[in-house]
Amino acid sequence: MTSPTGDASPAGRQMVLLQGELSSDDERVTVRSGDELVAEFPLDAEPYENWKHWLGNQVSGRRQAGRESEFRLKVDEITRRLAGDVDVAGLTRLAAAAGAADRTAEDTATDTAFIRVELGRRELDIIPWELLASPIASELGDRDVCVYRAVRPKKGRTTSPDPPQRALLVDTSPLSMESVSPGMEQDAIRSRLRDLEQAGLVSLERCADANPSTLGTALQRPARAVHVIMHGEDGQVVLSQGDQHVRIMSRAFAQDFRREPRPAAVTLSVCSSVPGTDEEPGVARALAEVGVRQVIGMYSYITAQASLAFFTALYEALGHCADMAGAYAAAVAALREGTYPNLGFWSVPVLYTHDNVIPFPGSSGDPRGAYRRILGELANLQQELAGLRPEAAWNGNTWRARTMRFRVTAEDNLDTMAELIELVRPEERSGSKWAADVIRAAYRGSTALSDVAATAESASEGRGSVQDFTTGKNALTAALTDLHKYLSARQRFAS
Amino acid sequence: MSPSSDWDPTVPSPNSVIESEFEDLLIHGQFLPAMYEKYPPAFCATWLRKQEEKIRNIIRTFRLGRDKLLETLPEIGDSLKAVFLVLDRLCDGPCSYLVSLPAVKQREAMAKYYKEFAAAYDEIWNVLGEYNLYAKAYEESSSKNQQLVIKPPNRNETAIQKDLVGKLEILQTATENITRSIASLPAPRSVPGSVPSQLQTG
To answer: What is the pLDDT of residues A207-216, one digit of tens each?
Structure first.
């Protein structure tokens, strides 16, 4: 279901809500689903910390002989440990019950069960809750399971879903060429959002080689989604500054994203952007806490290849107007299928989302069906025009009979073009290239239509010029062809 | 397929009865907007297609009677007047069918097409007058055993006939466009006591 603002409500999604709490002495973790206790275990951070560093060794090349084959065991070990602490059978029962209760005819196409974990204290971020998906999926007969986290954000305005939505691609110069590949990743994202861009719904901008100042400037204008490619470590990111690289603490980094209206979504292609330190939250949580309603970060290190695979799948789904939780589920499934657990290429991508905001517009592409109606009216004009092929032998009567419909409807068609110009004007004022193109084509079309109609009127009175008519007709046909292209692109996103 | 045994060609079909009623209402200026539901757009479009056929018949009659055109012209004139009368009452005046139409856009389009129709109709009478003058001049010169000399702006027989056909075709096109405008209208939402569905199909 989509709200009038283009934001989705999670209603109807098969979802289990878990609430994780840390005891007052910071030693025991309890997880409840409603009144039901599904986990109670000591917070022993060491295994999770160690596992994260072990993964880091795998990708940073500091491997020890013979440990390559241990990778799967290691991943399975941490999953087993987590599953041992959590009542997987209980969660499976809850997920199955939620599915049975909420499933409607619409839902049967997507059979994913969503488990939403609300984490009151940031110390609980160290636990890779996402790894619960695998054992629960197995218990559910291999139905897809998606685990994501919820952090209650600060209240405040989020960038409106009205087109054109600005999507900002941020990157900073890499510390090493091997570990990040901003060009390929950004190209993949651009290509996944191309349909939205051609429909004038999304406007992509790049903030290349970002430093603290240029990033701040880029974020001064509202952006609906921001994709960040840079290096990171627990509780910090690394930005270039001149010839140097500077470390920015997560809270300081998040300040630029605090300005209202805030982005609906920030995706971090940034290693270790989930774990924090004793002093600083993880970068993803810091962004969620300042009010960005959807943040994706990485639990540990991630290679350029895994990052490319994950974000390509994520933006493929977002480009088809999936909501973030659905897109995240699809991207994790793609990553698991393609690269996990081979060669330690992947970290655990983590989604923090308080609600299911759709970063890019779904049915808001044509809310009142006006573009669809205008497209139909202009298509009729184009068809009528194509049938008009005057010959030198035509006399006044022939012109009158053959061009009657065209002449009689010319005024209505001029009104249609004027209506279209008014309709896209607000989008043009918001900087939409699509809207600017539509307006230019509509003006060209109006001028040509007036000329052709006047020529047809003169010809009907016996002062015909086949050449004048044909010249005007060609100009009008070209304008109508362009308008058809622009409006058809928009129609792909109309409900 | 042969007609069924109880079919009597002398008994008017329900279609023709209701069409006659409709035409009477138009001709006598008694059509009211409240009657729109009884004579919905689909019915009117079917009826209009018959008027189109009448115009095609006029063109056919003209072409077939070219060799004795002067004798054919009165018949053509009468047929034209009959078609004009119903089209005029359909599209023009306070008791016209057009006034009852709920869709402004189609109403305006129909009015414009009717304007084209009426202009061509008026011009046809001018052309017919021109042809009569030509015929008289021709007869006069023939009786004197002289060759008819035509001086511009007067036109010869071929040019006049070509113009006449051209204007008749304008009538036909205008009527087709009026039909198309009416056919594009949706059916009235409630049609109590409306025309049976078999009458509404073309």
So the answer is: 999 999 999 9
Report the complex ipTM: 0.84
The 3-state secondary structure of B117-156 reads HHHHHHHHHHHHHHHHHHHHHHHHHHHCCCCCCCCCCCCC
Q: Which letter, b or e, does each residue of A250-263 get, where b requires 16 or more Cβ atoms within 10 Å of its Cβ?
A: bbebbebbebeebb
Given A401, A405, A409, which is nearest B170 (Cβ)? A401
Instruction: Kindly state the DSSP code that residue B35 receives in the 8-state scheme.
Output: G
Final residue belonging to a domain, choices A116, A150, A184:
A150
Same domain, A378 and A474: yes
Task: Read off φ and ψ for residue A337, nearest 5 degrees.
Answer: -70, -40
For residues A229 and A324, membership in a common domain is answered with: yes
- Number of other residues whose CB lies within 10 A of the CB of residue A115: 24
Chain A residues in contact with B174 by the CB 8 A cut-off are 404
- pLDDT class for B11, splitting at 50, 70, 90? low
- Lookup: tokens for A492: 């792909």
Give the chain B residue whose CA is nearest to the CA of A403. B173
Residue where the block lists tokens 């300042």: A290
Question: What is the count of structural domains for chain B?
Answer: 1
Q: Do A412 and B109 touch (CB under 8 A)?
A: yes
Cα dihedral across residues B113, B116, B120, B121: positive or negative: positive
Residue type, A161: P
**Interface contact A395-B113, CB threshold 8 A:** no
- The CA R_g of chain A, rounded to the nearest whole Å, is 28
pLDDT, tens digit, for every residue of A195-208? 999 999 999 999 99
